[in-house]
Amino acid sequence: MHDLGIMNGMAYIDRSFQKVNIYIDDDKIRCIGSEVKPCRKTYNAEGKRIIPGLIDPHVHFELDTGNIVSCDDFYSGSVSAAFGGITTFIDFLDPVSKSSDFESALEKRKKLAEKSIVDYKFHATLANPVGQTRELAGIAKSKGLDSIKIFTTYSESGRRTYEREIRELLGLSKELGFTLLVHAENDNMVGVLPGHKVWDITSARNEEAEISEALSLAGMVEETGGNLYMVHVSSGHTIQALSIRYPHLLGKGFHIESCPHYFFLNLHEYDREDGYLFTMVPPLRSHRSQGLLLNNVELVETIGTDHCAYMKKDKEKENLKDIPMGVGSIEYSFLAMYGLLGNGAIDRMSENPAKLFGLYPKKGVIKEESDADLVILDDDGPYLKTEDHSASDYSIYTQGAGAFASMIKVVSVISRGHFVIENEELKGGNGKCLL
Ligand SMILES: [Zn+2]
């Protein structure tokens, strides 16, 4: 007798949809097949699609910048995630420079995340760790973190990590086995000035700065043999430049993440009267860069949302430097990307991030003995999604050029064998820290 049977659905297994029954015991998928077996509970998934619980590798809930805290906490953010089909997300620890600060940074975020209804993990974050790279990487690994994030910019707030330490960290990534996440912008080419307005964002944080830093980092990966993951790549021009100069590194030592908003929107949003609602770093790019991003999507390994939501009133500021940067999108991410990439969106939001961040095959795949994280979809749309569960009072996906109808709809979500959402109704859940 199995605990739960998901019957007659079309499940995404080995990159295609197959009609199977999925049997779950406790928190694991116990067996997959065509036989009908006795279960304590069954769910009829006839006519529905079943995909692995999705993984968002780039999320900021309750991000405290010192001036303001982003509006989705780990509860509202995780509910919104679940309604978007995401059953695992990876958030970030606050930046530290010294190994003595690591433990408290970890404990602080772990405590806040306890209210999450789905599973989660963290990336460590470093800020200019001079003389501390080996110790910090060692502590992160010993605490179960498989990734470390750095910034090549924000020198004005002390967050920039410089070339010597980046090389050290790349060497350590190979030696100790972790992924170095990099926010890549050439610090000498970017900067928000006091008089800058919303529409200045594209020059203040220009595309050339992303391209030049990406190329310089790829050179360091080549020399050190390290493992680098470039977060939120905003432009197809960046990928094109990398693929011309360093084709042998892409998907090997150099991994590319992009976000749904760079595929869906472009800098014309900054001409709107409420253009401030569309501000994030890096900013939206030209229509041409947007097209090139889609043309080069084969080289984009993962889709992360960089979810960092704020209320309208917090974003409505005259000067660019006063606007908190970031947008929410965790609930729309898969719907949007599935429309563009089809099954390619599933791979980039399940198996690929699972493999890069030490979660595979526990997460990211429908397989016997994997965690029973499943998303059940209706696919006879169009469905127009007009509201969501984020604490924010707006979404860039429900207005202007961002409004879209999706052919699929999230119906039910199972996390480790339990319904978090059942037939569009929130049941809640107990997210587990995966460290
Ligand atoms: Zn981010």
Explained architecture:
It is a single chain. The chain has helices spanning 74-83, 102-113, 133-142, 163-177, 201-204, 207-224, 236-245, 260-264, 287-295, 312-315, 333-341, 343-348, 351-356; strands spanning 2-13, 16-25, 28-33, 39-44, 49-52, 54-56, 86-92, 119-125, 147-151, 179-183, 228-230, 254-258, 302-303, 374-378, 383-384, 405-406, 409-415, 418-422, 425-426. The protein contains 13 helices and 19 strands. It is α/β, with parallel strands linked by helices and 435 residues long. Strand 9 (147-151), helix 4 (163-177) and strand 10 form a beta-alpha-beta unit. The strands form three sheets. Strands 1, 2, 3, 4, 5, 14, 17, 18 and 19 form a nine-stranded mixed beta sheet that branches. Strands 6-7-8-9-10-11-12-13 form an eight-stranded parallel beta sheet. A two-stranded antiparallel sheet has the order 15-16. The longest helix is centred in the middle third of the chain and has 18 residues, at 207-224. It has two domains: 2-51 and 365-426, Urease, subunit C, domain 1; 53-356, TIM Barrel, CATH 3.20.20.140.
What is the CA-based Rg, rounded? 21 Å
Helix fraction, binned, reads 25-40%
Taking the alpha carbons of the first and last residues, their distance comes to 32 Å
The CATH C-level class name of the largest domain: Alpha Beta
CATH topology grouping of the largest domain: TIM Barrel
**Mean residue pLDDT:** 97
Number of strands: 19
